[in-house]
Amino acid sequence: MADPITIPQLNRIASQVRRDIVRMVHSVQSGHPGGSLGCTDFMVAMYFRILKHSPNFNPDGTGEDLFFLSNGHVSPLWYSVLARNKYFDLEELKTFRKINTRLQGHPATQEGLPGVRVASGSLGQGLSVAVGAALTKKLNGDNHMVYVLMGDGEQQEGQIWEAAMFAAHNKVDNLIATIDYNGQQIDGPVDSIITLGNLKAKYEAFNWEVIESEGNDMNDIISNMTLARSLAGRGKPVVNLMKTEMGKGVDFMEGTHEWHGIPPNDKQLESALTQLEETLGDY
Amino acid sequence: MTKITYAEQKDTRSGFGAGLLEIGRSNNNIVALCADLTGSLKMNDFKKEFPDRFFQAGISEANMMGLASGLTVGGKIPFTGTFANFSTGRVFDQIRQSIAYSNKNVKICASHAGLTLGEDGATHQMLEDIGMMKMLPNMTVICPCDYNQTKAATMAIADHPGPVYLRFGRPKMPVFTKEDEPFEIGKAQILIQGVDVSVFATGHLVWQAIEAEAILAEKGISAEIINIHTIKPIDVETILASTAKTGCAVSAEEHQIFGGMGESISGVLTQHRPVPMEFVGVNDLFGESGKPLELLAKYGLSAEKIAAAAEKVIQRK
Ligand SMILES: Cc1ncc(C[n+]2csc(CCOP(=O)(O)OP(=O)(O)O)c2C)c(N)n1
Ligand SMILES: [Mg+2]
Question: For residue A58, is it within any domain?
């Protein structure tokens, strides 16, 4: 087997993916840079190191790990990482959110974009979908994992907790959920909107295995996702509370909800790009 | 009639925000709820001026509908604000049981309706809400055509007892109705009189219909343009009076044809006095990302398409 990709290599990819995100959102003057930049290191680690997957996209995903994106607004991140994994042509990133594109504002299956299995965008639904897919893996005797990424504001949706209760009750232990714990949502910090309180204790009370990680540290992501994988198969679903910084990598976007869903202007783009090394070649 | 023109373009959601603030000042019982979209719904001014009467529900729309229902018990008049999808589809049963069936005085205010929300794409482009809401007993359904009318409608529904669904949108569109023109729930507005075809439009497509009238006039066709800002109850009298004169009808709406305003009009016509009719709306499709006017063109909702439908229906007389 080939050596796994190294941490420095992953960090170089993440820098390029961040460039892709700000360029895509700038080009169409629409989209969500904040959450996308914050989750970049995680998504890169997943698709370049953790997931057992094939860019020869098979919608059923038989014999592969599955990834679902519940916080669909971080679509530019997902699209960049899929393209950089050769799921589709890099040039297609130019079409993000423009008419007739496969790269819809929120991930969709209708246009047949490789990598997307269920549409998302309306929040709160992805955990249920992931639990369902994990059940099918079990029914099919397929011992691969199901991963899902959600937002922290998204945890305010009741459906999340319906799914959490179901997954624990049914011992869905081939499921690893990650929460982008950036403490921000549209209207402000999560704690000022509807606080999640002790999220760890809540998931524990729902009978989940809980791990905590640093989502903007490649080492920490790899070691905790490896840990999460080792906790699977023991009768409990696993959740990874992953601390990130919204807007990570572009100083003026960092740590504020203001950049949840607005595009940079020309000058801001220029400033952002000077902070992000072009490592793999822009699309 | 004088030609309809406009001096500026504004978003209908800002009309909602302005109306909410104004009615909040004159009626202490008005309370507002929002599900993490205060800026998008233009509810910030109300929130700032009346912090005790504003409730941030977070991303929990089903919860918000239940809260609104409960707030009416004891006399509050709750206005809920979120996108049209999360105002209806996501919370249909909460509305059905706790608001419509229980006949509660809740005003469900829905922004970003239709294709014209643009780049966010199909997940957010609600095209089924008029159908769902008009089917509910006790529910009034209103879809104003521009900024001024949305502001007036927001204020009018506060004084109208019972559940109301108020639908509006995201992009800036021409403002062509008069400022401070009172809003009469249930009364269709004849914007341009004509004799050859009746065009019934709602929401953003009213402006498209006005532009269609100009296209038709150049060809010597006289179209009557009627703004159906209240979809339920529908103005049977105005519809029948117009079609008695013109003998044919076109509907235009930013919604699925199935279950839309056009279906309500065709119901009126077939029951009372059938005439040929054409439907301009989304034809059993989901939307997609794009710019508002690009999307109207691609999905057949532009002024040109309304004019073409008018010409076609006239041939069928
Ligand atoms: C059901 C639903 N309600 C509201 C929205 C609008 N919305 C999009 S993203 C967002 C905030 C999400 O917060 P979080 O999950 O923390 O993501 P982050 O802002 O951190 O990226 C909201 C309210 C939505 N997409 N779906
Ligand atoms: Mg967040």
Answer: yes
